[in-house]
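Budget justification aside, the reviewers requested a transparent look at the raw inputs and outputs of the sequence design task funded under Objective 1. We therefore reproduce one unedited record. The lines immediately below are the structure tokens for a 230-residue chain.
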């Protein structure tokens, strides 16, 4: 049976490979945050979403405990998502600048959002084995997203996961040697001369509120992506 994005999504949602992550995501869904007591938390792994013909693939770290783990859609319902979707909308990749729930009407155009790890981890820190067990899902998505031209990694962990996943997906790796290092604004051409990796600090509250990642810096990455695609 041929692989499809829908099949991968179903398998992700049903996944229980990582006992620590299963326990954490389900505990958070039971205990909830006071502001969301009336929500029925998703409490499961969160699949990727977006345009299957996308040329821009955005790779994040993992679902937020009270964001995607609550809403069931990556970057939806927390401050990281507020920053991301505002930038995607400003640069014509998203139909609206806010994402609050799976049925809020938001659509992505020429963009697909996925993650290195699919369950909300304690303290936002997946363990090495959890990255390894989740990587095959990212590999399978990348194989199917054949129109991709730019892979945007949000944060060092997503950058490292992407460097591992691309060759496993049969996609040419970086053309430069030694292997590239993560840095905000880094641009890494791939060997096929068509695709490239862009890197950004993750739009976490820790980064945006401390000024490590400013609005201008973040939007600059999406401006570069749009320029490269045009």
């Amino acid at each position: 049976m041929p692989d499809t994005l829908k099949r991968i999504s179903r398998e992700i949602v049903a996944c229980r490979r990582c006992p620590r992550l299963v326990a954490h995501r389900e505990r958070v869904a039971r205990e909830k945050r006071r502001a969301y007591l009336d929500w029925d938390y998703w409490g499961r792994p969160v699949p990727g979403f977006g345009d299957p013909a996308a040329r821009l693939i955005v790779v994040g770290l993992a679902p937020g405990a009270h964001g995607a783990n609550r809403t069931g859609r990556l970057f939806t319902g927390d401050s990281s998502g507020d920053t991301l979707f505002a930038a995607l909308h400003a640069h014509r990749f998203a139909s609206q600048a806010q994402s609050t729930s799976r049925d809020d009407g938001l659509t992505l155009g020429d963009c697909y959002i996925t993650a290195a790890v699919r369950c909300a981890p304690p303290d936002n820190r997946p363990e090495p084995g959890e990255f390894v067990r989740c990587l095959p899902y990212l590999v399978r998505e990348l194989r199917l997203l054949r129109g991709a031209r730019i892979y945007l990694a949000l944060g060092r962990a997503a950058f490292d996961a992407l460097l591992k996943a691309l060759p496993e997906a049969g996609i040419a790796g970086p053309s430069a040697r030694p292997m590239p290092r993560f840095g905000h604004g880094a641009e890494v051409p791939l060997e096929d001369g068509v695709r490239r990796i862009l890197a950004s600090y993750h739009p976490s509250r820790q980064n945006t509120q401390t000024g490590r990642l400013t609005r201008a810096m973040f939007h600059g990455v999406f401006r570069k992506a749009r320029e490269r695609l045009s």
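The chain has eight helices and six strands. The longest helix spans residues 128-144. Computational costs for records of this kind are itemized in the attached budget.
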